[in-house]
Amino acid sequence: MKITLTPRQLQELEIIVTDSAKLTLSHTPPDRAGAESAINYLYRRVGLNPPKKIVWGGSPFAIAISDISRAIGISDAEALRVALDLQSRDFMVTRAAWKSAEIISEQIEGEVFGRSAFTPLKSLRGAAALKLWQTIDDFWALRDRFLPAVDGKRELLFKRAISRLSSPAISCYLDDAVCTPYESGMYSFYSYLCGVAGAQELKELMDVFLQLAGCAGWVVPYENLCLVSDKPVRMECNPTGELHSLSGSALEFPDGFSVHAVDGIVVPDYVVTQPQKITTRMIDHERNAAMRRILIKRYQGNFYDDCGAALAAEDRLGRLYRKRRLFDTDFTFVRVLNSTREPDGSYKEYVLRVPPEVTTPTEAIAWTFGMTPEEYLKTQKMT
Fold it and tell me: Is-contact 245 273, C-beta < 8 A?
């Protein structure tokens, strides 16, 4: 017979997961002794001897560089120094990683490090999910309810951000991470349910994963070597949990590796720190639509005035402007005057972005109200 959680247990679970998920935004220094103790425990749990060496890096970027440097025969310090000093670090990492892709896969996964401990460690977490599914009624419904905290959505966003800034090669290393600081909500979720289900051995295991998530950053295990990154020293997010900061780096690690991001989109540093460098030409030549929207938002001036849009149509309700673009549909907007007079006797002008398909100001204004031109004109007659 399966167990059904009581209302009180549901309330307790929500509090525990929420509090634990706050570790995601924690800037506390790494607890290396606590992390290494948890790592050694997990290795023994899957039948392996503790790793002969635990290598710490200042960031996920650093531990990826550590792997690459070992594969191509240069020192960690030299690879990291060169990568962090280059203006275009993404080019350096991509070139080094992809040029030596076969060497990396053969040497790291085979001769150099032996078989990866990732699969058996991952299977331990899978065993917890299987046990809970068999024991807790509506387990998957509970999982869905706590999905943002349980499934590490923020961890996925951060990993993508780091991958975009450095190279696709970095992401492949982070895919092998067995534990990250962004999964604390998941481990507390499993730990609580294991306690309810009476699975004390699995609960102890989840608590060790939770300890590791709170003590360190990404953990990438091999048979004889474990790579561990420090936790970030700065992490800023918008209300939806995406990396976001308009005052500096959104994600920063002790070794200087940092990510600037606006609403989850990784941007060049100057977009945040020196937005005055953004020009209309730069915006015109940006191929990525999401990046282009951010550049327009950060532009220091009136983009509608400066973009070079031409008057396309005019009627009694306003003026329609259109700008041809290289990599996207036309940039189209309408200028209208507020029908209500301001205290000083003037009429305030509004600029509204509209679809490129519209051909008249009336059609553009009607679209903003979800109406056809005919329907909108009828409302004007009634007023």
Answer: no
Report d(CA 239, CA 244) in Å as an integer. Answer: 9
CA distance 318 to 340: 15
Q: In whole angstroms, what separates CA 221 from the centre of its chain?
A: 23
- Greatest alpha-carbon pair distance for the chain in Å reads 83
- The CA-atom distances, in angstroms, between 314 and each of 39, 245, 320, 335, 375 are 69, 40, 6, 10, 19
Sheet of strand 318-323: strand arrangement: 310-315, 318-323, 331-341, 347-353
State the Cα–Cα distance between residues 134 and 292, nearest whole angstrom.
48
Residue with tokens 């040497």: 107
**278, 257 Cβ separation under 8 angstroms:** no
Name the strand (E) or helix (H) holding 158: helix 153-165
CB crowding 105-120: b at 16 or more within 10 Å, else e:
eebbeeebbeebbbeb
This prediction's pTM? 0.70
The pLDDT tens digits for 334-353 are 999 877 777 877 778 889 99
Per-residue pLDDT tens over the stretch 206-248: 999 999 988 888 888 877 778 888 888 888 888 777 788 999 9
CA–CA dist 284, 275 (Å, integer): 16
* DSSP H or E segment with residue 235: strand 234-235
What's the Cα-to-Cα distance from 189 to each of 159, 212, 239, rounded to whole Å? 22, 15, 22
Q: Which residues pair with 266 in a beta bridge?
A: 261
Q: Give the Cα separation of 245 and 233 in Å (integer).
A: 14
Cα 155 to Cα 149: distance, rounded to the nearest angstrom: 10
What residue type is 320 in one-letter code?
L
- CA gap 116, 121 in Å, rounded: 10
